Amino acid sequence: MRPVEITKGIYDVGVIDWNIRDFHGYSTYRGTSYNAFLIVDEKIALIDTVKKNFADQLLDNISKIVDPKKIDCVISNHTEMDHSGGLPRVMHRVGEDKPLYCSNMGAKNLTRHFPQQWNYHAVGTGEELSLGNRTLTFLETRMLHWPDSMFTYLKEDKILFSSDGFGQHYAGHERFDDEIGDDIMLHAKKYYANILLLYSPLVLKLLDTVAQLGLEIDMICPDHGIIWRKDPGKIINAYAKWAKQEQEKKAVVVYDTMWHSTQAMADEIAAGIAGEGVSVRPMHIRSSHRSEIMTEVLDAAAIVVGSPTLNNQLFPTVSDFLVYMKGLKPLNKIGAAFGSYGWSGEAVKLINKELESMKFDVIDPGIKIQYVPEKKGLEACFDLGKKVGKAINEKR
Ligand code: FEO
Questions:
Q1: Is residue 158 domain-shared with residue 284, that is, in the same domain?
Q2: CATH code for position 196
Q3: Residue 309 and residue 336 in one domain
Q4: Is 14 a member of any domain?
Q5: Model confidence at 1: pLDDT above 80
Q6: Are residues 229 and 308 in the same domain?
Q7: Residue 193's closest CA among 338, 34, 300?
Q8: Closest C-alpha to 396, from 308, 278, 285
Q9: Whose CA is nearest to atom 1 of ligand 1?
Q10: Which of 70, 246, 285, 352 lies 20 to 30 angstroms, CA to CA, from 194?
Q11: Three-state DSSP class for 78?
Q12: How far is the CA of 84 from the centre of ligand 1 (A)?
């Protein structure tokens, strides 16, 4: 239950959103939380707020510790409305004239979201704010994942308030990594694959900057999910691996199907890949949400895409997935295409074009089979799978 005292005088006053299942197109089958942090020192600071419809719950949580009017300043690490939507209610209770700290871009972006003329204090990397016995240092993290994003570091307690960074969409009463164990890593991986993957070069730069600054980190407090206190290095190392797009000996066969012909092809391709000792995930697009598929794509070495031809085009769900994957910029993948068709058969050519535009190494012209695959066609699919499996083995 919130609030939770995460260390002496510092509280998570955020809220749990148990029921959200679609977070702007990301499937949140375990819900999420909007974390916000109250630091009670000589001065009292609130870091981030919550979604608009949870603002009263946030204020109730704060009220269990201090009267919100006693908050001296509010810090907005990120403008996106799951963290800023509650600002109007919060600033109204805290006091409209209280200082609101954010990055330069934060000040610009918040004014594009809210008409109120708040007392903005724009801060840059390295600027400090003393709360009395504690000092906050700001670290801009532009485009991780919005232009306004920043982290706030509390040096006396060695806590990094990391906004969306290191977050996970997970709703639970557990507050810390040591209360949940490794199960949380899948949620963190999914978050990275679907929110941060395209900014991987910036993640690597940020990790370098944090190392150069010599920031000691005992605890990472993201704005979603659990807090990393047992082993913050574990999630930092995982980010380094994901940002480098390190690959496992693994392929994803992603497809849709109309009358099970493309599905039969997918199964044979997957069997061929597995026959080469490579791990493979066949994923039917209407059975697995695109955000789940992206989680598997993150560390896969090859992506094999299958689509029936419908009205001379890709099947719409396949098109949707390709657009989504392209935006997230996975790098250095092996690619191949396949699909069943009735009379025109453009899908394979269209998939190849998309894979090439993502700079995938398309290792085969692809296989298209009219109507229902027979033995010879299925053997060709199996052989394509073997070719993909061999290419993965050679790459490693
Ligand atoms: Fe959790 Fe970018 O907002």
A1: no
A2: 3.60.15.10
A3: yes
A4: yes
A5: no
A6: no
A7: 300
A8: 278
A9: 164
A10: 352
A11: coil
A12: 9
**What does the angle CA 328 – CA 332 – CA 335 come to, to the nearest 5 degrees?**
90
Number of domains in the chain: 2
Instruction: State both tokens at 112.
Output: 């594009």
Residue 344 within a domain: yes
pLDDT band at 2 (very low <50, low <70, confident <90, very high): confident
Beta bridge partners of 176: 227
- Between the CA of residue 239 and those of 191, 206, 227, what are the distances in Å? 11, 11, 15
Start-to-end Cα distance in the chain: 47
- Strand-pair category, 10-12 with 37-40: antiparallel
Element (H, E) at 294: helix 290-298
Same domain, 144 and 258: no
With tokens 């308030």, the residue in question is 161
249 close to 279: Cβ distance less than 8 angstroms: yes
pLDDT value at position 396? 81
Active site residues: 24, 78, 80, 82, 145, 164, 191, 224
* CB-neighbour burial class of residue 304 (10 A; exposed 0-12, middle 13-18, buried 19+): buried
Within-domain flag for 396 = no
Structural domain for 85, as ranges: 4-243
- 8 Å CB contact between 238 and 299: no
Cα 68 to ligand 1 centre (Å): 24
Distance CA 168, CA 195 (A): 10
Going from the Cα of 83 to the center of ligand 1, the distance in angstroms, rounded, reads: 7
* Residue 395 within a domain: no
Last residue of a domain, one of 226, 243, 260: 243
**pLDDT, tens digit (0-9, with 9 covering 90-100), for 323-367:** 999 999 999 999 999 999 999 999 999 999 999 999 999 999 999
Question: Are both 111 and 9 inside the same structural domain?
Answer: yes
Tell the residue number behind the tokens 């600002």, with chain if given: 87
Contacts of 330 (CB under 8 A, 6+ apart): 197, 245, 297, 298, 303, 358
Note the pLDDT tens digit of each residue in 153-172.
999 999 999 999 999 999 99
Max distance between CA atoms of the chain, in angstroms, equals 77
CATH of the domain at 330: 3.40.50.360
Ligand 1 atom having least distance to the Cα of 163: 1
Supply 179's token pair.
Answer: 């209360």
- Pocket lining for ligand 1, CB < 6 angstroms: 78, 80, 82-83, 145, 164, 223-224
